[in-house]
Design a protein that fits this description.
- This is Branched-chain amino acid ABC transporter permease.
- It is found in: Cell membrane.
- It comes from Streptomyces olivaceus.
- The chain contains 15 helices and 6 strands.
- The protein is mainly α and about 375 residues long.
- The chain has a domain of about 230 residues.
């Protein structure tokens, strides 16, 4: 049972970053808000993949397929041609549609593991890309489709509709979508942590360690594998909806194998099996190419977009960088950024305990004869030889 005071301290520690994130739209311009939106959408999808690959130990290369199902599902359900459903209803149904697609594939995920599951999910990406290009009436073909803005209770998360000004700051599409992204990311964060700390998370962790030991303890291997795949698909569908709203137009080429590889890079860099690590890795992998594109003219060896053949563009340079980051992580810190942060925090706490409370200097050293755990203490040696 956890200490109520430690729980209260952890919750209080979340308050400053939450307030900071809520205040950023009042100070940042549209470029930085878009980076934040893309990072939050990527974090939602990375958390889902982390549950599947990091916790359950199932390799998946088909995450881009389920992102596409969520994005295009929302566009078709809420747009014309299509049923023209209310956008909020269409968003929920798009997430459920992605979960249904994961459920249809879950019998395979329940019986196949490792590289074999990776190859099987790889087929989903190629199949999905082909469907996106050929099903013109639903997807718009190669040129894609515009994304209908999300409306909840008459409030539009877009530039359309009545103007909104908060504390003298005009709130356009980026500012409104920022708070939607925060809400969806918070929902993802708390539901994923609840799963990991509950019985499903313990079962998936046991399954990842040893299938034989997990089955002996009563874990239904195929059922939990399938459930992890469905949950991961639903998180990917939610990320796809948020990505579609952020981009405002979806095209098939975005949901390619490269996107699935990017998501694998996110969870490896951030730390497998960690919600916070997956979120940090998503921010790193998503923001890096956007920042390098903006500041390409100020970076050495990086050419501005459209500079011609033979030049290293910002996208290629960013892939080289986080590819190198993956190698360094695997060699030096297999638990990723989350593990590095955890160890740094532990060292800081040990240093604080060693120096004692502020203003008291170093911690007092016990006098001889007062520390029974010290092997050099005479009292301790006498105690060892006492019959």
């Amino acid at each position: 049972m956890s200490d109520p005071r430690s729980v209260l301290r952890r919750r209080a520690a979340l308050l400053p970053p939450v307030l900071l994130l809520c205040a950023l739209p009042f100070y940042l311009d549209a470029f930085w808000l878009r980076i934040g939106l893309f990072s939050m959408a990527a974090a939602v999808g990375a958390v889902g993949l982390g549950l599947l690959s990091g916790t359950a130990g199932q390799l998946s290369l088909g995450h881009a397929f389920f992102l596409a199902v969520g994005a295009y599902g929302y566009v078709w359900l809420a747009g014309e041609p299509g049923p023209g459903l209310p956008p909020a209803v269409a968003a929920v149904l798009a997430v459920l549609l992605a979960g249904t697609a994961g459920g249809l594939f879950s019998p395979v995920a329940g019986r196949v593991k490792g590289i074999y599951l990776g190859v099987a999910t790889l087929a989903l990406v190629f199949l999905g890309h082909h469907v996106l290009l050929t099903a013109d009436s639903v997807t718009g073909g190669f040129n894609g489709r515009s994304v209908p803005p999300l409306e909840v209770g008459g409030f539009a998360f877009a530039d359309s509709g009545p103007e909104l000004t908060v504390l003298g700051v005009p709130f356009g599409a980026e500012e409104r979508l920022w708070y939607l992204g925060l809400a969806l990311f918070a929902l993802t964060w708390f539901t994923a942590r609840g799963l990991l700390r509950g019985r499903p998370g313990r079962a998936l962790a046991a399954l990842s360690d040893s299938e034989t030991a997990a089955s002996v303890m009563g874990v239904h291997v195929a059922r939990y594998r399938s459930a992890a795949f469905v949950v991961s698909s639903m998180y990917a569908g939610l990320a796809g909806v948020l990505l579609a709203l952020s981009f405002r137009r979806v095209v098939p080429d975005y949901f390619s194998l490269a996107l699935s590889v990017d998501y694998l890079a996110m969870i490896v860099i951030g730390g497998l099996g960690s919600v916070a690590g997956a979120s940090a890795g998503a921010v790193f992998v998503t923001a890096l190419p956007l920042l390098m594109t903006r500041y390409a003219d100020q970076l050495p060896l990086v050419a501005t977009p459209g500079s011609g053949a033979g030049a290293i563009g910002p996208t290629e340079a960013s892939r080289y960088l986080y590819g190198a980051a993956i190698v360094v992580i695997l060699l030096r810190a297999p638990d990723g950024l989350h593990g590095l942060a955890r160890r740094a925090g532990a060292r800081l706490r040990r240093r604080r305990r060693a120096t004692g409370p502020p203003g008291t200097g170093a911690a007092p050293i016990p006098a001889a004869g007062t520390d029974p755990t010290d092997p050099t203490d005479p009292a301790a040696r006498a105690k060892e030889h006492t019959p």
